[in-house]
Amino acid sequence: MANPQRDPAEVLPKITLDAIAPPYPHYPYFKGADDYPFRHGATAFDMVNAWWLIEASTLAYSEEDFVRPRFQKAGLREVKFFTGNGTQCFVANNDDFTIIVFRGTEIRKREGRSDFGNIIADLKTDADIILAESGQGGKVHRGFKHALDEVWEKQGLLEYIKSRETSNRTIWFTGHSLGAALATLAAKRYGKALGLYTFGSPRVGDVDFADDFRVSAYRFVNNNDIVAKVPPPIRYKHIGDLKYIDGGGIVHDNSSRREKTADAIRGEVSYIGNSPGKIRRGFINFIPDDFVNHVPTLYATHIWNNIP
Question: How far is CA 121 from the centre of its chain?
Fold first, then answer.
């Protein structure tokens, strides 16, 4: 069957201080899902699936009452929420597939909270970079491991995922930023996922952990996204086949370090060239390019524009 008629490429959202951090209550989640349904049986990389999973990863930053109807509108009728001090996770299901999506690092107070406890918990998780035994081979970031431990068995996440297992339903893990790191650990622990897609992921574990990773994994990096550069590669190694988004918004497979560095420099130069006007409007409105490139709606728009 021929592909549906594509709309013109989406224009990148304008990134301001108000829009740099999720949640995004006015973002049109899963727009286009009817024309491009999730390909739940795909055994190789699929750009449509990448778009679905970055949409889910962006949505995961929102409150449960906001998230549930948007998953349901996209055809994922059953939505279960799991929460701990260091993370939140949504599991969205229908008869064909299950998406396990972890929320990334928060830098805004959660609705209904009078303190910054959620932000402090995430920062502690991110900062605890000591390597600890993973329990599945190799060593991993201790903060990420402890955050996943909060929901994996204690809150019943693993038991719930197992309860969704059928011969016809496929399992997928995903997340952005901290959520990408937790999705990586969870996919390794579970072991039977059909795919892992991550967006702006930090490094998660050491060489032994990466070399023993058996789930099909795809790692998106948007230009010079700062989070994809940490922790340093001295003892850590990235997981998954690289899908690099260049400064022009084109997705490349496994770009070399030289190509990525050259493109990142071009992106920085272009951004700096456009910066004087932003600074004149007020230095407080100036956001470094490395941080802008981490915004999940930019990932979502670029990936949508790369669907064949």
Answer: 19
Does the residue 198 lie in any domain?
yes
Domain carrying residue 141? 47-305
The CATH number for 180's domain is 3.40.50.1820
CB 227 within 8 A of CB 202: yes
Nearest to 218 by CA among 262, 250, 259, 187: 187
Sign of the alpha-carbon torsion through 148, 149, 150, 156 = positive
Q: Using N-to-C axis directions, what is the helix angle for 117-127 and 178-190, rounded to 10°?
A: 60
Going residue by residue through the chain, which has 308 residues, state the pLDDT in tens, using 9 for 90 and above.
445 555 557 888 888 877 777 889 999 999 999 999 999 999 999 999 999 999 999 999 999 999 999 999 999 999 999 998 878 999 999 999 999 999 988 765 556 544 445 556 657 788 888 999 999 999 999 999 999 999 999 999 999 999 999 999 999 999 999 999 999 999 999 999 999 999 999 999 999 999 999 999 999 999 999 999 999 999 999 999 999 999 999 999 976 555 555 555 554 444 444 444 443 344 344 588 999 999 999 999 999 999 99
How many structural domains compose the chain? 1
